[in-house]
Amino acid sequence: MPSLDQILTSLVSEALSFNGPIVGVALAYAAVRTLQTFSSYSSALRKIRNTPSVKVSDLRSILAFDQVDQSDAKLVFVRGTVEAKSGVLPPQGTKAVLVQRSQLCVFREWMALFGWRSHDRRKKRFGLPRSDIGAYWKALWRALSQPGSRSLQKFPFILVDGGGGSQKSSSDFVSVNVDGSRHPLPLTTVYRHFHPVDAPLFSSAKKLFGHEYPASVLEQVKILPLGKEISAVGLCSFKNGVLEVKSCKDFPYFLSEMSKDQMVVDLTAHTQVLLFTGIVLGSVSIGVLGYFVARNWNRWKKWKQQRQLLQAIRASESNVETQVQEADAEDEVPRHQLCVVCHTSRRQYAFIPCGHLLCCQSCSALVKSHVSSKCPLCQVEILVSVRIYQS
Question: Which domains can be identified in the chain, with CATH numbers?
Fold first, then answer.
């Protein structure tokens, strides 16, 4: 009786033989994409290491004053304090230059998973059935996949050295342009509130889907407050005589709370993980594709050998048949060995089940092809004819 390991090995082998190319190509694609990301992160790491870290007041000294377009921009790393741009102030009571508002439907299972409901915390304390945990993860996935709504309100802002204050000249600040940037922003959550959903609106959903229905709406507000110290790594250039820094698409960062050394450490860790992941995925894909190629190569070799053997057997039978026919043509066939149908060739085929040796090859085929194929001597129905070789 085969062991469990043998059964599992057989199942894996059959699965790889059936879906081997698909799995191998998918893993190879994932490995290539991972290595491409690794290359991008490695390039960004080298650039950040070589990027000068300067103060806001020193930016003008490292840039040529005649740089007026993006093509002449210089990559810089600058750290400063967030201040509103002079002449464009946020509305009264808004002490932030970036305000992000989002709304997301929250399911009861998602709330319970993070301990946002007291009775669910008691259930977790005494243990949850496996089915409930599966339902929680299912609802969490559905909740996270909800598009929701998100809006970002932006006000022009600048970075200044130290504690900020009024700008005396254009060399004391650098304007930050976040337009077109898809990089994560260093926002701070200042408001989070759950708005309960009115139960009667979802009474039909309760009947259809049980307890898996939206329980509330999560509303969040995140801001980039005034006076917060952040770092900006991007392309710096002059725009209308004013220093401006924009995001660089080759970098995974633009605005961040991290310092330059922290960015280097973070990027180094990411590149190491990406390199290891790419090597593992590439090795597994090579193994899967290699196994598939080797298995099919062995099958093709076996099929080729069987075909050659079959061709050799057929050639041997053909040679024997030719030799017998030539011998029959050269020798005079006795009268009692002549075919009972044509009376010209030697009897070579016997009919089964009666066993009578009566016909030559062509006449045997002719008798068998008849609608009522019966032995010419005993009239017994013929099942098959057999070639008889006489020594």
Answer: 4-284 (no CATH), 335-387 (3.30.40.10)
